Amino acid sequence: MKSVARVIRENRNFLISAHINPEGDSIGSQLALSFMLGVMDKRAYMIDQDRVPDNLIFLPGAKNILTEPPADFEPDAALIVDCPVIERTGDVSGYLKKAGLIVNIDHHVSNEYYGDVNWVEEGFSSVGEMMFHLAGELGVRMERVLAENIYAAIVTDTGMFSYNNTSSDTHRVTAELVEAGVDPNFMHAEIFEKKDLAEIKLLGEVLNSLEISEEGKVAHIKLTRGMYSRVGADKVATDEFINYPRSVKGVEIAVFFKESTGEKDKVYVSFRSNGKVDVNRLASLFGGGGHQKASGCMLACGMEEAVGKVLSEAEKVLQQ
Ligand SMILES: [Mn+2]
């Protein structure tokens, strides 16, 4: 952290970026960093390949995140947050070549230490939590605007303080953010409770498909092209749908089958495990992968065939 603070103090022009398809931690942390640099009278541009998700655009400064820097901009340093490998910055990696220094600020275990300066804290819930401490190191006062961005980063990366990465320190930091003026009720409503009507309607369709097998140990749901056309939308966030089969009492493996909207005979499959079963192994049987508790794969066939194949392998994995 001290090396990062030194780079910030000793330079003037910065490029800030994060990983592609940014979410709460990468957006909130970039905004927090940019705010701190602003207070210190530095020049900084936040550049991301992809646009800010709708539920985060309310965050102070979010509209200043651009997809490309001014043509003549040559940053003294690029500050990359929440990005374990530099390639994950996507199109931004081209602009990074103009930067004098690369500074890598992250909390992923898989971080590749690609920076000239690397500040990687595996024990931290989020880069947002790291930003809180950086503000202290830089002597930047915890104003409400800064605190809101850090709060957004923490609350999303901890799954509303529910994941294992939530420590007593996380709560201590959060307490200080609330004291600095963050309104948790407002933040939760903006980030988590402004879903599109189409998403809720599609969830209804998908939950109707819920089936339980293997004596209650496997739960699966299906999303077909027909369901998209019934709700009249095809760009709907469906990432959270799998939490419903996963939360059924007694379930060990949850599976979400999702038909491609663009291509026929292509089914995306997501797996979640409640701990005992390694779903990374299950996904790798079909050429996919991921982690022990969350993984995915793609099958080039129709929906019913995909369901049959995957459930029969799930049965075998459960019996082992
Ligand atoms: Mn993160």
Overview of this protein structure:
This protein is of the alpha/beta class and 320 residues long. It has 2 domains: 191 residues, inorganic pyrophosphatase (n-terminal core) (Alpha-Beta Complex), CATH 3.90.1640.10; 123 residues, Diaminopimelate Epimerase, Chain A, domain 1, CATH 3.10.310. The protein has 12 helices and 11 strands. Strands 6-7-8-9-11-10 form a 6-stranded mixed sheet, sandwiched between helices. Strand 10 and strand 11 form a beta hairpin. The protein starts with a helix and ends with a helix.
Radius of gyration: 21 Å
- Strand content range: 15-25%
Order of helices and strands: HEHEEHEEHHHHHEEHHEEHEEH
Strand order of the largest sheet: 6-7-8-9-11-10
Give the helix tally.
12
Helix fraction by DSSP (H/I, runs of at least 4):
25-40%
**Mean pLDDT over the residues:** 95
